[in-house]
Amino acid sequence: MSYLVIYNPAAGLGKSRPWVNRFVGILERRGHQVEMFFTAKPGDALQRARRVRSGTKAIIAAGGDGTVNEVINGLGGTPGVPILHVPTGTANELASSLGLPADPESLATILEQGAVRMIDVGAAGDRLFLLNASAGFDAMVVEEIHRNRRTTLGYRGYAIPILKTMARYRARDIFIEVDGRDRLSGALVMAHKVRTYGRLFVFADGARLDSGHFDVCVFDRGDVLALLGYAQAGLTRQSGALSTMTRLKATCIRLEAKVPIPVQVDGDFLGTTPVEITLLPARIPLVAPA
Questions:
Q1: 130, 216, 265, 285 from 77: Cα distances, Å
Q2: Is the pLDDT of residue 150 over 60?
Q3: Fewest Cβ atoms closer than 10 Å to its Cβ: which of 45, 70, 82, 184?
């Protein structure tokens, strides 16, 4: 039995190699066999996860939330090998939501002694996600990054894409069908599985990885001043007071628009509307503190 480490050296600011080496060294000193795989480009983690061998005790996704996303997509959303997130990215929302520490000794102990939680997964078309999906301004920023990214980002790396997106942004109506029944519209739609968004904003305080539903937020207005107001409310944990945001719980939402609207999942560009987003309950085994 061995552990497979799928490591993205470009995650975060690309400075995590010594930390990951220390973590692997701890596992080896404790008598574990460890196989290391280094990603070189987007999609490498997904392809390596598809080739996981029988007898692999767990997959250790060392990187950001995007690395974990590739791993779960590589596994195809079928229950099987447990996954531990070793958080070396920028936001590390999954690790934060699971209560995983940043200390390598503690993480090694959790890998050996922690619980395996069956976590809900979202499916947007044929793409799986763990954290959130959205359509509107934020997804336009993600699309801008997808087109022009040349290096590691960090939080500062979002400033220029945000400004470029603002310069060409025009609010468009998104039409939302909820669980095949209710219909409403808004300028920005988010389907959350975790409490925070980008680790900075809180719009769905009750969202949980294993709740059995999405916490959906529909923002009525799309002008720049309204977006700035939404951002401030999310930063200050005051979004509950917003009168122009509707909250819903759902297991399936369909998004449509007269003009195609960008869609993102777990911080990666997915494509444009129309898209159907469906919850797959208790689908992926994740290692978490006992």
A1: 11, 22, 15, 10
A2: no
A3: 184
Mean pLDDT of the region 141-161: 73
Token duo for residue 192: 């959350």
**Superfamily classification of domain 2-113:** Probable inorganic polyphosphate/atp-NAD kinase; domain 1 (3.40.50.10330)
pLDDT tens sequence across 197-230: 988 899 999 999 999 999 999 999 999 999 999 9
Residues 19 and 87: beta-carbon distance below 8 Å: no
173 contact partners, CB below 8 Å, separation of at least 6: 185, 186, 187, 257, 258
Six token digits for residue 101: 């520490």
Provide the b/e sequence for 215-253 (b: ≥16 CB within 10 Å): bbbbbebbeeebbeebeebbeeeebeebeebebbebbbb
Determine the residue type at 136. G
Region 28-44 average pLDDT: 95
Token reading at 161:
């894409």
Tell me, what's the pLDDT at 153?
Answer: 59
Write the CB contacts of 148 (distance below 8 Å, at least 6 apart in sequence). Answer: 161
Q: Does pTM top 0.85 for this prediction?
A: yes
Run of H or E residues at 233: helix 224-235
Tokens of 288: 């978490």
Rounded to the nearest integer, the mean pLDDT of the chain is 91
CATH architecture label of 127-281: Sandwich (2.60)
Per-residue confidence (pLDDT) for residue 243, from 0 to 100: 92
* 280 class by beta-carbon count within 10 Å (0-12 exposed, 13-18 middle, 19+ buried): middle
SS3 254: strand
In the block, tokens 């809900």 appear at: 120
